[in-house]
């Protein structure tokens, strides 16, 4: 994922409020947009999640992987995976339309594409952004970086062939559009998507017109992180 930038905390805590711990430009933008769409009360704690300090120490106490997003529920429970957060928020606020209704063709397509984004594309950032962590320094790390980035491009082009219009599922907006709008701003960047995956680029551009998502994108990606 892109390097993070430190920002001041947003909002204020209150009874019955969610706390979203995240970093600017990271996957927490997806959950932040989902929370805004639901209308559920929440506040943000923005921090450079890899930087040592009190914020990182607290994050590690809440989430042993030290990753963002981390969601603190109103009852104190902790959620650590964005897809799980999205599904939980849908259960609490189905009016937001994050997940298609049960029994519709869009429902199984939603599950399939969500799992591919989370299970296949997302890990390429884990292994490709800091390959020396996994392969050691030197030529092995650089080869791993190239191979992982090439595989990411293949995965995106596979998804490109299955994506709908004007939204990821076709006529109806869903949480998939939040993922596409955010993830197409990561490497290899929006220009690559416009050239190589124009349908995904178009879905991202349409999604960015949604006012709640537009607010989140402006905060996380201004200027663009490419």
From TrEMBL:
Molecular function per GO: transferase activity
Pfam family of the protein (one): GST_N_2
Name of the protein: Glutathione S-transferase
InterPro entries: Glutathione-S-Trfase_C_sf, Glutathione_S-Trfase_N, Thioredoxin-like_sf
Organism per entry: Bordetella genomosp. 5
Keywords from the named record: Transferase
Domain GST N-terminal: 31-91
């Amino acid at each position: 994922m892109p390097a993070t930038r430190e920002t001041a905390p947003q909002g204020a805590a209150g009874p019955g409020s969610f706390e979203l711990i995240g970093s600017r430009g990271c996957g927490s933008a997806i959950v932040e947009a989902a929370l805004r769409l639901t209308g559920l009360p929440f506040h943000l704690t923005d921090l450079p999640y890899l930087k040592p300090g009190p914020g990182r120490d607290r994050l590690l106490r809440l989430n042993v992987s030290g990753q963002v997003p981390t969601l603190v529920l109103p009852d104190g429970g902790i959620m650590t995976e964005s897809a799980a957060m999205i599904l939980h928020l849908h259960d609490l606020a189905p009016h937001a339309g994050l997940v298609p209704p049960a029994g519709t063709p869009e429902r199984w397509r939603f599950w399939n594409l969500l799992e591919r984004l989370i299970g296949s594309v997302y890990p390429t950032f884990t292994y490709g952004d800091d390959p020396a962590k996994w392969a050691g320094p030197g030529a092995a790390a650089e080869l791993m970086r190239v191979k992982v980035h090439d595989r990411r491009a293949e995965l995106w082009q596979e998804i490109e062939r299955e994506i709908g219009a004007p939204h990821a599922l076709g006529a109806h907006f869903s949480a998939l559009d939040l993922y596409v709008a955010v993830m197409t701003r990561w490497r290899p960047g929006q220009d690559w998507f416009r050239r190589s995956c124009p349908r995904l680029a178009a879905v991202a551009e349409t999604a960015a017109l949604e006012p709640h998502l537009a607010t989140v994108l402006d905060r996380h990606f201004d200027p663009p992180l490419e």
